[in-house]
Amino acid sequence: MICTIKQSTLGSCVNGLGSDSILQLRTPCLIRRSFFTPPLEAQSVSKTLLAVSKPLHVSSIEGLGSIRPLKSVIKCKAYEADRPPPVEAPDAKSEGTKRVKIGIYFATWWALNVVFNIYNKKVLNAYPYPWLTSTLSLACGSLMMLISWATGIAEPPKTDFGFWKTLFPVAVAHTIGHVAATVSMSKVAVSFTHIIKSGEPAFSVLVSRFLLGETFPAAVYLSLIPIIGGCALAAVTELNFNMTGFMGAMISNLAFVFRNIFSKRGMKGKSVSGMNYYACLSMLSLLILTPFAIAVEGPQMWTAGWEKAISQIGPQFIWWVAAQSVFYHLYNQVSYMSLDEISPLTFSIGNTMKRISVIVSSIIIFHTPVRPINALGAAIAILGTFLYSQAKQ
């Protein structure tokens, strides 16, 4: 209810805020006897009491300053106490712009991930050193972000010791998951690695249930049946099955589950954007991974393998290494940026669709032989992942 009252006609405004509100008027007014009779004009009434059965709460007053008769106007907006204040409708234009922005994020995320997996597999086929390949991916991303901060392209984050302390366990889990996935792709087909990695929700539920004591609805537990069954069917029927590749994907699933747990627990209240958060994560992971990569493989193996790859592939191999490193950072960066704009449920659905695009594209590009029963297992596992994302929310 909105009313406009000129101060020249205002005798005394609200006398009290109780169960009834009383307005005293000195000007002629219209008195409505009921909802079914016309109003009567009271010319000789000097004082009229208007009783309101429900208290009015003033939500805003405009123009209330020094009282100037015949000039200032007081505008009051009020609503009944037992009704909520009016809610403005969201701007349709801004909502549409947000949806377009999220759509662009998703399309870019999937495209960059597909390109990364293609070049990563090409590099690993010619240069089977996953520890160095993983290190180069993190180093390239860290260098890109340092240049962006130095040149002002991106605003550097404001961090302190507490931030890096809470980020450390996240970086450890991220490093293990990244290396394990790269080791897996160096031994088996890209499609097989991603089929096994689609079973990550099963690890998430099991870890949360038995280590953290969390409980879930029955629908969540039921969604694990197609996930586990589909992954098992795909693994059994895989033509080029390799135990190292299989275990690498499984370890990657477990590591990324702990990464998510540490990230949720440690980063609450930290005002760092998704892009800068992943940049800091890459830098810390690089510091953790480098000494282990040197110990496991070493410069001598890297040099001999590099000369062999250059002699077989040519200078084009350098572009492959650079591309897989750049696209690895870009697709992860876009995924963290999209997480700032969408809900966890939407992100989970997008991650599921991303795996489908990677599996299909890798099968087409690398001509991976797939038997119908193997494809069925992959479809069941991915369907279970989708059902899990629905049931979890």
TrEMBL record:
Q: Name one Pfam family in it.
A: TPT
Q: Which GO-annotated molecular functions does the record name? A: organophosphate ester transmembrane transporter activity; phosphoglycerate transmembrane transporter activity
Where in the cell? Plastid, Chloroplast membrane
InterPro entries from the UniProt entry = EmrE-like (IPR037185), Sugar_P_trans_dom (IPR004853), Tpt_PEP_transl (IPR004696), TPT_transporter (IPR050186)
Membrane disposition: Multi-pass membrane protein
Question: Where would I find the Sugar phosphate transporter domain in this sequence?
Answer: 101-389
Query: SUPFAM superfamilies, alphabetically?
Result: Multidrug resistance efflux transporter EmrE
Question: Which keywords does this chain's UniProt record carry?
Answer: Chloroplast, Membrane, Plastid, Transit peptide, Transmembrane, Transmembrane helix, Transport
Please tell me one Gene Ontology term that the record gives under cellular component: chloroplast membrane
**Entry keyword annotation includes Transmembrane helix:** yes
| Location (main, coarse) | plastid
* First and last residue of the signal peptide: none
Q: So which domain of life are we looking at? A: Eukaryota
- Give the residue spans that cross the bilayer: 102-119, 131-150, 218-237, 243-262, 274-296, 372-389
Q: What is the name of this protein? A: Sugar phosphate transporter domain-containing protein
Annotated source species: Rubroshorea leprosula
